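Bug report

Summary: structure tokens for Pyridoxamine 5-phosphate oxidase differ between web form and batch submission.
Environment: batch mode, default settings.
Steps: 1) Submit the sequence below via batch. 2) Compare with the web form result.

Sequence submitted:
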Amino acid sequence: DGYRAEPERVVLIDVEAYDWNCPQHIQPRFTPAELEEALGPVRERMDALERENARLKERLAETGAAGRAT
């Protein structure tokens, strides 16, 4: 096919393992459903804490203590 050179040596490599250590190729360990199940309680707790924080800020504002140092 127009290639005139002749190979002088051949190197054979036996690959025993291959590591895809690249974020583009790392397979997710958990499905979105598994993550939702695991993170659901955390989200519920965070929502409860945010509601409590809002209530406490309202109480501070009502008592006028919001600007005072403790």
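Above is the batch result. After comparison, the two runs are identical; trailing whitespace caused the diff. The helical segments are 32-63. DSSP finds one helix and no strands in the chain.
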